[in-house]
């Protein structure tokens, strides 16, 4: 027969541990466990550099008390099925998490969202961009608070904005926010109009001033058209052909112009949308809009008894007051899969919707005229409306994608770069834009898919870097300093250990290690013999 004793516990000190927490834990636990430390020096603690090795050398340890900020998720995995009990230290003031668009098009906003913790005092958090504080929010003392800050860049290029705050000693702290601001994509737009109009004239001029290619075909009388091209080689637009439509990204036309097209031209348009990814927008200017197969598969609902009204026009991303424009007495009722690009008083009263047809986008609009905005000097509203519409209609440009892991890549740390968008290409190069300093050689080129290749490098400098090769994927990426996002890293460790401590463990009969010791049976035999002897004597008496 054997007696079973439970296994021992251990204490692991990690970065940010507090001596008073350790003392309290040692006083509470009996018998006192042995103390270890990981990535931190501590008196009377055995230093551990490899958790898998620690587990192999200490097989009796079943419960690990982790003191401090904890361990990274990969390191925790090496502990296997050990029970982890966290004793976490308060996080220092700083950013717990943050997200923002790493690449935008000029005219779009940079919106930074995340969580911030302020340990010792209320803190003013700023978004610092283009040499000035652009937005701010107050973080309450002791709170874990969400924030949202925004800024709209005015020029294209590579920029590093900052989240900025001051501590109790008035020292400034910053976290870097690299953003690539690209110039707007230039599109080729074909305007088909049932008659010459101010709307077409203003839109043609506005698009041309931005560098877009524009071709105009306005019907003067039956079979006779007035044509014009700007920022494009001379093209014949008197008849719509597959060859002609291959030269354009978007076609804008009114319902009357659509109806005047021949059956062959309509079929050519449909094929260009479905097979080539052409975008098309049909605008209704009359008082009785109606659904048109393929080109205007929409539900029109009357919202006013008046035939013509002036009403507000709003759209996603609009930051100024609503535009007021001439509208019909109808609104669109979007079906499933038909997002609203613009609307009136409420998003349910849609004025512009889109839906997919094959590879392309088809749009329907009830906004009859937008040129009054330009006449009134409201150029931002005018440009903003058409930028939203054209971006939604045009097929995205085909760009080889490059992903980076980890997202917050730092100097002297391994960085994995995966390029897609082509077959096997020569090994790319990575170099700093600042001084053209090459990073350590790219290693790898491994791929599970023929169109994806992954390379590993160890950047030697912080800042913007170029990555690419001739004929292969290319990108700009940012390497952070080793000291960046410290509070975020500590927060991730604490989240990982909280998750590990709440995970289900294997049953003791599988995971526990037992210490066994022989137990003598003769005391039971002696006791039984004495009891029988007592019963025999009692009968004799």
UniProtKB/TrEMBL annotation:
Keywords assigned by UniProt, alphabetized: Membrane, Transmembrane, Transmembrane helix
Transmembrane stretches in the record are: 519-537
Q: Which domain of life is it from?
A: Bacteria
Name of the protein in question: ABC-type uncharacterized transport system domain-containing protein
Organism, by scientific name, is Nibribacter koreensis
């Amino acid at each position: 027969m054997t007696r079973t004793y439970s296994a021992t516990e251990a204490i692991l000190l990690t970065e940010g541990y507090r001596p008073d927490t350790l003392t309290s834990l040692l006083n509470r636990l009996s018998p006192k466990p042995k103390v270890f430390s990981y990535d931190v020096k501590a008196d009377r603690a055995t230093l551990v550099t490899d958790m898998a090795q620690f587990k192999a050398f200490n097989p009796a340890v079943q419960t690990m008390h982790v003191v401090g900020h904890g361990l990274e998720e990969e390191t925790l995995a090496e502990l296997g099925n050990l029970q982890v009990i966290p004793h976490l230290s308060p996080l220092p003031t700083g950013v717990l998490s943050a997200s923002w668009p790493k690449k935008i098009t000029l005219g779009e906003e940079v919106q930074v969202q995340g969580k911030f913790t302020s340990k010792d005092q209320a803190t003013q958090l700023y978004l610092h961009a283009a040499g000035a504080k652009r937005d701010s929010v107050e973080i309450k003392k002791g709170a874990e608070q969400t924030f949202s800050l925004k800024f709209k860049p005015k020029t294209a290029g590579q920029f590093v904005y900052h989240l900025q705050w001051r501590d109790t000693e008035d020292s400034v702290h910053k976290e870097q926010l690299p953003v690539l601001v690209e110039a707007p994509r230039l599109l080729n737009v074909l305007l088909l109009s049932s008659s010459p109009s101010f709307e077409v004239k203003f839109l043609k001029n506005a698009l041309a001033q931005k560098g877009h290619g524009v071709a105009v075909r306005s019907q003067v009388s039956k079979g006779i058209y007035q044509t014009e091209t700007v920022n494009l080689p001379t093209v014949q637009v008197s008849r719509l052909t597959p060859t002609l439509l291959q030269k354009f990204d978007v076609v804008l036309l009114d319902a009357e112009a659509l109806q005047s097209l021949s059956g062959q031209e309509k079929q050519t348009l449909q094929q260009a949308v479905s097979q080539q990814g052409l975008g098309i927008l049909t605008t209704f200017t009359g008082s009785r809009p109606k659904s048109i197969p393929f080109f205007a598969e929409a539900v029109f609902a009357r919202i006013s008894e008046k035939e013509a009204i002036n009403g507000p026009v709003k759209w996603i991303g609009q930051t100024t007051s609503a535009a007021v424009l001439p509208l019909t007495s109808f609104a669109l009722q979007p079906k499933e899969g038909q997002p609203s690009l613009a609307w009136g008083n409420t998003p349910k009263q849609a004025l512009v919707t889109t839906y997919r047809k094959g590879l392309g986008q088809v749009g329907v609009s009830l906004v009859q005229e937008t040129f009054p905005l330009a006449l009134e000097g409201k150029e931002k509203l005018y440009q903003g409306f058409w930028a939203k519409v054209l971006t939604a209609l045009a097929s995205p440009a085909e760009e080889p994608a490059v992903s980076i892991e980890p997202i917050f890549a730092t100097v002297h740390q391994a960085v994995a770069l995966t390029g897609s968008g082509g077959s096997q290409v020569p090994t790319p190069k990575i170099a700093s834009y600042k001084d053209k300093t090459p990073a350590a050689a790219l290693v790898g080129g491994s791929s599970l898919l023929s169109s994806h290749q992954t390379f590993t490098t160890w950047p030697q400098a912080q800042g913007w870097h170029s990555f690419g090769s001739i004929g292969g994927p290319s990108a700009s990426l940012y390497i952070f300093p080793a000291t960046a996002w410290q509070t975020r890293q500590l927060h991730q460790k604490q989240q990982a250990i909280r998750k590990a401590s709440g995970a289900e463990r294997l049953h003791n009969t599988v995971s526990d290690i037992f210490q066994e010791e022989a137990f003598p049976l003769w005391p039971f035999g002696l006791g039984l013999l004495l009891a029988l002897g007592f019963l025999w004597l009692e009968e004799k008496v």
